[in-house]
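note to self: dont lose this again. the chain is below, predicted strucutre after it. 126 aa total, dont forget to put it in the shared folder this time
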Amino acid sequence: MRKIAILIAVASVCSILAYALGYETGKRHEAIKKTDPEAWKSSIYADRPIVQDAIRRWAQKNNVSPQRAMEGRLIVWMNFPDRACVSLSLHPGSVGGVPVYCYAGDISGAVYKQTTRLIEEYSDVE
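---
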């Protein structure tokens, strides 16, 4: 009986230590991700013309460089039948507004072509 109690106590302590270590590791990982000013560049959409246009517009609106405008932001792509929208969202836990820019799509037959013609802009957010 005494061996079982010792085993349970050791297992409990190990579980608590493993939980604490995992929690701290996860917290550090999130902190690193939030402080990387160029995290947005890893998006698969970062090189698309309408994303570059949205970033340029957001930077121009705030009178900063595109690099500075995208600090703490991530690219979110939204496709709709007649348009594609780009949201420059904030990292989770950040405070501020999220601009959205929508661009026209050209449906010719069965082929959908993205244009760089801005049709909607929601950038009065800060």
